[in-house]
Amino acid sequence: MKRTLPPLNALRAFEAAGRLGSFKEAAAELHVTHGAVSQHVRALEEWLDAPLFERRNRRVVLTPAARAYLDEIGPLFEQLAQATSRYGIPATISRTLSVNAVATFTLRWLVPRLAKFHREHPGVEVKVDTSNEPLESLKETYDVIIRGGPDTFYGYSMRVFLSEERVPVCSPAMLKRLPARVPDDLRTHTLLHTSSLPRLWPDWLARANVPTLSPAATLTFDHFYLTLQAAVDGVGIAMGPIALVADDLAAGRLVLPFDGPRLPSRSYCSYVPQEKAADDLVKLFCAWLEREGQRAQTRSSGKPPANVSLK
């Protein structure tokens, strides 16, 4: 007997919109436009010859009949995912994960590790947007947002995955050319600043007991990643976040001129909308962040490399 089934793409859009209570959030989850979700829902309403949502200004509400329909078909999608997984095909295959992270973290920590994530999970595409806007100011919906913390935001779950400290860093070639054995030696150096982080150097100099030190020169950049790149290129000495320069320290592109002090900093955290917290792919990615953060923490927890030889 031939089965009578509605259009499956339309059914998928209806299930997401009904479960999330929003066409916009359904579009974000399915990685289509708001208009595409509306068209699919309208097509399903035409196929069923019955309304599914009541439009109330900017909100949509399920009709009583549509709520009963969703209660029946919703578990079927979960059963389908579980059955697919049991037969050896990952339920997350061909899915896209949307991530928003601050630019310097993305460039110096996340991007170098994404190739490893793709090797471990070849069926997952990660779409990364960079932004320094506060989480509550973001206009789009993302699966995972990476910001400093820990902070509490209504409607989001938060996990710390990478702690951070800041210390002076510079290129080995520059340190050979112009030695710096104690903090007071910074009087002969160029200190590199970032306009959005004006307190880094003053706070560190105060901890190093040279609060009134005047360097030979200062240079200020509008983006933190430019400040760090200037340090790699031997322009001056920057306040480097240990987690984000660990690879450069290991490769010898940067060195630590002093053993301390280390300036405490905000940790890196994953913030996940509550409606996405149970998503298997979101949980997979956040668990991967925590594993990579632990590896990075273990790598940088010991005493920093000694100064390069000045002989």
Write the CATH architecture name of the largest domain: 3-Layer(aba) Sandwich
**What is the count of β-strands?**
10
Strand/helix succession: HHHEEHEHEEEHEHEHEHEH
The helix/strand class is alpha/beta
Q: What is the CATH fold-level name of the largest domain?
A: D-Maltodextrin-Binding Protein, domain 2
Instruction: Name the beta content range.
Output: 15-25%
Domains (count): 3
Name of the CATH homologous superfamily of the largest domain: Periplasmic binding protein-like II
Indicate the percent of residues in helices.
Answer: 40-55%
CATH class of the largest domain: Alpha Beta
List the SSEs and their pairings.
Blueprint: H1 8-20, H2 23-30, H3 34-48, E1 53-56, E2 59-62, H4 64-86, E3 95-101, H5 103-120, E4 124-130, E5 144-149, E6 156-169, H6 172-177, E7 190-194, H7 200-207, E8 217-221, H8 224-232, E9 237-241, H9 242-251, E10 263-273, H10 280-300
Helix pairs in contact: 1-2, 1-3, 1-4, 2-3
